Every structure is written in C-alpha cells, then in structure tokens.
C-alpha cells in the first residue's frame, strides 16, 4: 500500500491489486477519512489527514477497477457495483495527465508513482518528469538520459514501458521457423534455474561455482539479445595430461559442413572423438552436446543445466532434424 496526504482535513491512501498471472495492476482500493483528530502512531503524533494512524473503524475502503492502455497506464476508473466510469483522464504522449470525475490515481506509466507537489514521478532508480518527458539524472548504469531527443523516456510509450527507470533496451529476437525462440522473453536478461535445477547443480559443486548468480545468489543462465541461452560459463574443459602430450581440451567445436545435417549420433560420434571421450563416458559424467544457434557450433555442457533451461537451439535452426 502507498499513501498520500492531500491536506489538513482529508487523508487518502491507496492499495493496488494485481493480476497474479501477469502482474498487471487491475484495481485500486481508495482509503479515505474526513476526520481531523490526530492519531497516535507508535509514540508520535501523526499530521492531520495522515492515514497511517487510522484504526480499522476509521477506514472507509472502496474498490475500483482500473482500465489501462497497452503500456499499463490507467485511463479509466470503474465503480464495480454500478459499472459507472467515476474517473477518466486525458494524457499527453509522454505522461502528463489530467483526471476528471470523482476518482483519480497517482499511477502514471508502469512502475511510476506521481507526486503532485513536486511534479515528478518516482520510477524506482530515477525520477521522471511527465511535462518534459525526461529523467532527472543519468542512467544509474552509466548511460546518459535522452534529453537531446524529443522524448527522453522510451522510444514509444504507447508500446514500451520502463519499470525500473533504466536505459531503454531493444532486444534483437529472431524468429525460428516462424516463431520466437523458447523463453525469448529473457532476451538480454538472465533466467533463474528452477528449484529442481538448483538442487541438481548443488550436487555438482564445480558446475555450481561456474554458474553466474543473480542478486539473490541463485544460479542463472544469461540469454543474449537474440533470445538464445549462453552456456559458455559451464562448457566442459578436460585438463591437460600429466605428460603434457595433451593440453586443456574445451568442449566447444565447429562441426564440418558435411555433418551439419547428419544425425545426432553421427555428430556426437565426431565430437566425442575430438574431445577424447566415449559416449559412455559422456553419459556417466552427465554431459550433453548443445547445438549452439551459430551454424555448426556445438558445446559440451552439463545435462543438469541444459535440461533445466528450455530453449531453442541450433538443432531447430541449422540441424538436420534427424535423431
């Protein structure tokens, strides 16, 4: 819940409800009071109109449905009992809006909470000014704000959102056989392993140590801008022999062109020979040959990781389609 104080004689608090599947805000609960008696809030006296000190009996909760545009910006507020539109807004392309009717909402674009007093909208890592269409500072990651452009926010706010207030990023997802790659929604980001996958790699300390970790410390697999997983960090490497006759062997090879459309058995037979292992040894170690999206490229990776991260690979792009 978030709250705003609107004056000495009236306080208003908001609670927003989300669609559990998409995370989209679909409703707003408005908490209002017209009482002016100050409330005790944990040893201090709250300002008149401050909703934080209310007890349940002083709270009048009203639920309203929000109708948003494609980018998640609320445009209408609906009374679910009567079906009447009790609030609607006019909005400029980059977020300046004027509410009409009995109800309003401080939400602007997705991830933004507007402060009427300052004229700025909180956008997690930065503040956004809807009048000017710009941020108040450079991107925390180091990219400058797009003040010199006509927009400064995102390329097109009717289709794009910037939930965290960071630099706009365009993925270069490429369709495979007419469809986006599996899990391409992670393009340019990291996909966490499932709990089953985490349990599996925890049993393989060497693999676990090589995997990138997110801020929570959980193992992840990065996806490139094209929507394909990057297993480079866990590619199998065999140590050099003690006599020095064989150097470190990294399981990252390019198949001869004549094997691009051969069976998986033929491809793996050639690859195993390059690696100096047998199919039985590979299976016992829990390793899998991964078809990279680049033509003919194959990588030997742990089956525990490869099997946990659903993806579209080279098999669908350049493989022969024969097992």
UniProtKB/TrEMBL annotation:
Listed InterPro entries: Rhs_assc_core, T6SS_VgrG/RHS, WHH_dom_containing
Name of the protein: RHS repeat-associated core domain-containing protein
The species this protein was found in: Corynebacterium cystitidis DSM 20524
């Amino acid at each position: 819940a978030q709250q705003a104080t609107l004056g000495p004689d009236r306080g208003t608090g908001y609670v927003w409800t989300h669609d559990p599947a998409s995370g989209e805000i679909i409703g707003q609960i408005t908490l209002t009071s017209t009482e002016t008696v100050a409330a005790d809030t944990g040893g201090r006296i709250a300002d008149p109109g401050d909703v934080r000190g209310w007890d349940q009996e002083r709270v009048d909760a009203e639920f309203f449905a929000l109708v948003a545009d494609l980018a998640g910006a609320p445009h209408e507020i609906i009374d679910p009992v009567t079906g009447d539109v009790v609030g609607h807004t006019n909005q400029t392309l980059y977020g300046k809006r004027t509410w009409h009717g009995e109800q309003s909402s401080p939400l602007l674009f997705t991830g933004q909470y507007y402060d009427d007093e300052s004229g700025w909208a909180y956008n997690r890592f930065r503040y956004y000014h809807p009048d000017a269409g710009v941020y108040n500072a450079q991107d925390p990651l180091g990219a400058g704000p797009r003040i010199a452009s006509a927009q400064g926010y995102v390329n097109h706010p009717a289709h794009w959102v910037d939930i965290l207030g960071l630099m706009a990023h365009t993925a270069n997802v490429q369709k495979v056989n007419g469809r986006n790659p599996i899990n391409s929604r992670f393009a340019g980001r990291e996909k966490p392993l499932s709990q089953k996958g985490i349990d599996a790699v925890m049993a393989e300390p060497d693999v676990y140590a090589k995997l990138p970790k997110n801020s929570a410390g959980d193992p992840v697999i990065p996806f490139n801008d094209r929507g394909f997983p990057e297993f480079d960090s866990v590619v199998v490497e065999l140590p050099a022999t003690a006599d020095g006759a064989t150097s470190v062997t990294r399981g990252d090879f390019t198949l001869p062109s004549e094997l691009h459309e051969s069976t998986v058995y033929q491809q793996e037979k050639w690859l195993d020979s390059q690696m100096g292992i047998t199919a039985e040894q590979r299976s016992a170690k829990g390793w899998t040959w991964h078809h990279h999206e680049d033509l003919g490229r194959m990588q030997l990776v742990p089956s525990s990781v490869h099997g946990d991260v659903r993806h579209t690979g080279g098999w669908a792009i350049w493989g022969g389609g024969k097992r």
